[in-house]
Amino acid sequence: MRSAPRNGARVRESLDMAMTAAAFDQAVRLLMLDDGVFLLKRGQRFEPNGLKPVAPLFEALALYDVEDVFVERESLRGRHLTTEDLVIPVRVVERADIAGLTAEHDLVISC
Amino acid sequence: MAVLHLVNRSPQESRALEDCLVRAGESDAILLIENGVYAAVKGGDSEAVLKSAMGRVRFYALGPDLDARGVETSEVAETIRIVDYGGFVDLTVESRLVQSWF
User: Fold this and answer.
1) A50: burial class by Cβ within 10 Å (0-12, 13-18, 19+)?
2) Which among A97, A100, A96, A90 is positioned nearest to A29, based on CA atoms?
3) Which among A6, A26, A28, A108 has most CB atoms closer than 10 A?
4) Residue of A nearest to B100 (CA)
């Protein structure tokens, strides 16, 4: 996940896909890059028009055994964030290791 | 080849190409499609971006998307191979993974 769409529909559908795959016993991992790291930022509130914050959606992942959420160190640093600012525990990965991490998987879906 | 990266956004409008290149692995392939093909035009700002990754990855541009945008083969950097839809399929088959950047 690489962008921070505030409308939430894309985030919700992406997580639905991840949790559905996990429910069918597929090993699912998430990788947050670039503005995607903003999705996990603490302190998000409802917008005046009633739009819900997206961060709480990620808290449901653990219930579906999607526990490996990776965040790129450079993406966090460039946005003045640390793992303390995020709503769920994450694994931090260096930019130089992204290609290797990607290669460990059978399928990559960009969300 | 390991990963085929698809980039479909103009390099002047989006950081998708640069964001892809900083993470692409050795011997990966980058296929420019849709407005992504504008990065293939030589002499533009993206030439330096492509050069920075040259040698590490291979670049391709989708011919029909160049044609649709009036970009002639003579305007495309020599380091970029132009492929048709059949070539797109071949790249997909040869790659272990396909990853989209948008």
Assistant:
1) exposed
2) A90
3) A28
4) A110
Which residue type does A61 have?
Answer: L
d(C-alpha B74, C-alpha B9), whole Å: 22
Give which of A32, A2, A90, A77 is closest to B19, Cα–Cα: A2
Question: Rounded CA gap, B2 and A89, in Å?
Answer: 30
- pLDDT, tens only, A58-105: 999 999 989 899 999 999 999 999 999 999 999 999 999 999 999 999
Overall residue count recorded for chain B in this entry: 102
pLDDT tens sequence across A6-29: 667 889 999 999 999 999 999 999
Q: Match 């492929």 to its residue by tokens.
A: B83
Closest CA in chain B for residue A108: B99
Residue among A2, A33, A102 whose CB faces B3 most closely = A102
A57: tokens are 């959606």
Q: Which two tokens stand for residue A12?
A: 């919700």
ipTM of the complex: 0.89
Q: How far apart are CA B47 and CA B38, in angstroms?
A: 10
Shortest distance between the Cα of B74 and any Cα of chain A, in A, equals: 33
